[in-house]
UniProtKB/TrEMBL annotation:
Species this chain originates from: Solimonas fluminis
Protein name in UniProt: 2Fe-2S ferredoxin
Stored CDD domains: fer2
Domain 2Fe-2S ferredoxin-type: 3-107
Residue runs in coiled coils: none
One Gene Ontology term from the biological process aspect of the record: P450-containing electron transport chain
Amino acid sequence: MGIKVTFVQANGVEKTIENIAAGESMMEVGRFNGVEGILGDCGGSCACATCHVYVDAAWEARTGKPDEVETGTLDMAPDVQPNSRLCCQIRLRDELDGLRVTVAPSF
């Protein structure tokens, strides 16, 4: 089957992507599937914050907290919230099937 994730884009339109293989970067999945606001300018090296998302409260414990490097990069992003993550740092795995995030406002 595969993993399913839902991105809520800035315009409110939900984009659900299904049949994702475990191990994929959430940022790459968003870019490849045309999710508005997921730019990933640094290619996933946690250096630009152009893949900033807000993790839905029901999923925060499963995605975990950002590490020191990610927290430093988030400091460059506008509108950081307690549930902010860079989706380049979220590797999809079976227990994240159904994950829901909202794309943060662009710079």
